[in-house]
Amino acid sequence: MPPQLSPSSFSHFRSSKITTTAQFTLLRPRAPNHRPLLARTPVRLASQRGPRRTQYNRFGNAQTIYSVWKTSPNFRYGVGAVSLSIGGIYYYNFEQVPISGRWRFNCISPAREEAMAKSQYQGITQAYGREILPPSHPDSKMVNKVLQRLIPAAGLEGQNWEVKVIDDPEEMNAFVLPGGKVFVFSGILSICAGEDGLAAVLGHEIAHNVAHHTGEKLSQMFYLIPLALLLTLTFDISGQLSQFLLGIAFERPGSREMESEADYIGLLMMAKACYDPNAAVRLWERMAQADAEQHTTPQLLSSHPASKNRMTVIQEWLPEAQQKRAESPCGDTTGYMDDFRSAFGHGDDGFW
Ligand SMILES: [Zn+2]
């Protein structure tokens, strides 16, 4: 039976309606040792000291493991076999992320990823029930319209796409589950300020699926949790290091890298679908502004900080995105319109 995913498995979903159950209880830090340092290391005169002995207290089981390693060939063969197996699994599942070309370890197949997201989809659909707007609602229609243009650009035509717009003007959030299940809270539509802004949000969220970030995050557990346990057992240190490693892996560099990758793939995707990639920069500016005003902090920002650096990086990708749009069937008209706008100094919110 596949593990059940909690909402936290999908980094963008934050809601009070679904409770999170995933906790690394195995790695809970121990209670701190409050014994004073001096009590553990009494000072003795040189004349009182016996023969010098190496102390391994700080390294816990490391000494025992080293002794077994030295005396038992079977232990060494076992460690070698396990290491070779892990290396083989790692090598076999080493792959390149589509579009960005980044290499990473991912042992979760798209089919498995999709199967695991199914229960998540059912849970969210049941939780929001009547708040889900009908497909005939103008908001649902607009989301579906933008989605239909993005799907061919994402190359995900084969998925069973479904759009659920949840009527909640306070919630500024959107996410896409593996398998093509799109959830958009109506609150984010106001900050999108039109189809181009919505394309930026959906492009980013779909990009996480294109890059199979859910599978990658789950795959990280295969080596991070055993690594953290091994470190804890070997050095007999508190679980804080394990927590620290897991924090780094899941919250900081990994997530930032994936977010930036989703920004890049999403930007190219929306441009290929003939949307204006400049809208992505403006969207994050509006998000940051709403956050600064505090009374309307977008929930999407909890996993997507609209930092200045993020906007700067997106701006650096704009020429490539514009090129992508020019190569699309829409390229001639939009390129001409852009030239015309810049020649006459009209901004997007101006005459055009
Ligand atoms: Zn994201």
Q: How would you characterize the overall build of this protein?
A:
This protein folds into 2 domains: 64-96; 111-339, no CATH class. 56% of the residues lie in helices and 6% in strands. Mean pLDDT is 75; it is low at 1-16, 18-47 and 333-352. It has helices at 37-40, 62-71, 73-92, 110-128, 138-154, 186-192, 195-210, 213-235, 240-250, 253-272, 278-292, 308-327, 331-344, and strands at 94-96, 103-105, 162-166, 174-177, 181-185. The N and C termini lie far apart (55 Å). β4 (174-177) and β5 (181-185) form a beta hairpin. α5 (138-154) crosses α7 (195-210), α7 packs across α10 and α8 runs antiparallel to α9 (240-250). The radius of gyration is 26 Å and the shape is elongated. The strands form 2 sheets. The protein has a 3-stranded mixed beta sheet with strand order 3-5-4, with helices on both faces. It is built from 13 helices and 5 strands. With 352 residues, it is mainly alpha-helical. Bound molecules: zinc ion. Zinc ion is lined by residues 12, 204, 208, 259, 262, 304.
Explain briefly what this protein structure is.
The protein is built from 13 helices and 5 strands. It has helices spanning 37-40, 62-71, 73-92, 110-128, 138-154, 186-192, 195-210, 213-235, 240-250, 253-272, 278-292, 308-327, 331-344; strands at 94-96, 103-105, 162-166, 174-177, 181-185.
Which features does this protein show?
352 residues, mainly alpha, 2 domains, three-stranded mixed beta sheet, two-stranded antiparallel sheet, 5 strands, 56% helix, elongated, disordered N terminus, binds zinc ion, metal-binding, metalloendopeptidase activity, metalloprotease, Mito/Outer_Membr_Metalloprot, zinc
